[in-house]
Amino acid sequence: MQLGDTYSMLGQVEKSIGCYEEGLKIQIQALGETDARVGETCRYLAEAHVQAMQFDKAEELCKKTLEIHHAHREPASLEEAADRRLMALVCEAEGDYEAALEHLVLATMAMIANGQENEVAAFDVRIGNHVFMTGKLLESKSYCENAPRIFAKPAPGITAEEIAGGLTEISAIYESVDEPQEALKLLQRAMKLLEDKPGLQSTIAGIEARMGVMFYILGRYEEARKSFESAVAKLRDSGERKSAFFGVVLNQMGLACVQLFKIDEAGELFEEARAILEQECGPCHQDTLGVYSNLAATYDAMGRVEDAIGILEYVLKLKEEKLGIANPDFKMRRVGWLSS
């Protein structure tokens, strides 16, 4: 078993699996198939199979581990919680989100029963994500409502970055159920945790960009512009000025400027966004096409009608090449553009 641990630490997963399998055989011969120590070895072996992405074998071993622990432990033990966490990971990898959700809920209940409430926050986030994956949005939100309260009193060893990441994940769920105000509050909490941390400029910029979107949805356009502006400055400083994400943030900032009637500034932002997204995503990408549309409308508002028409004709040509003139979607879009 120790040799298997050594191979595992060295990243030699196949060799570690071989050692664990030999150790398991010896244990079963000496102790019997239902001994608690056999259960622990089954879990080690299951974890190794997960690392090797051999999920069928991992699932079999997880089931065996649960059976053994049920025979030797009280219901809802910490051992069962650990087993179910691993089982949830396996089910998630296999795309069985309903089963993963069930194991996560049971693991959470076991941890609460053993007085480990402070460690449940991350579980609530994962449960919320899995409920979201099953399409039950409101139920997903209800699971995530507990996590922020627990994050307020984190367990020792949990870093500010981990808490901020959890809050950001929860905010995405609130955004998906059309509660931008709650999403914004969580993003602001995440920002406060990270604002004094060095080396996290890109992470903070991502949160600020999300905050900008929430401000925009809420109609708070000046605050949206300021959030996007701060995110853009950080991305420039961190060397991400040519990334697709940077182009998207520029486009979003441009939209906020339009709402504030800062048309010239919006035009400059859309032009820079277009150059970046054409390079990084190509002219036919949805984000690039969105910038073309925004830039054409901005040129029109600036009185640059010929430039606006030139962009729309270029987009029309792209659509014709991509969809073909016989495509009904192309025909409808062409009529709309020509009549606008």
UniProtKB/TrEMBL annotation:
- Pfam families, per database record: TPR_12 (PF13424)
Superkingdom of origin: Eukaryota
| Stored SMART domains | TPR
Q: Which InterPro entries match?
A: TPR-like_helical_dom_sf, TPR_rpt
Coiled coil ranges (UniProt) are: none
Protein name according to UniProt: BEACH domain-containing protein lvsC-like
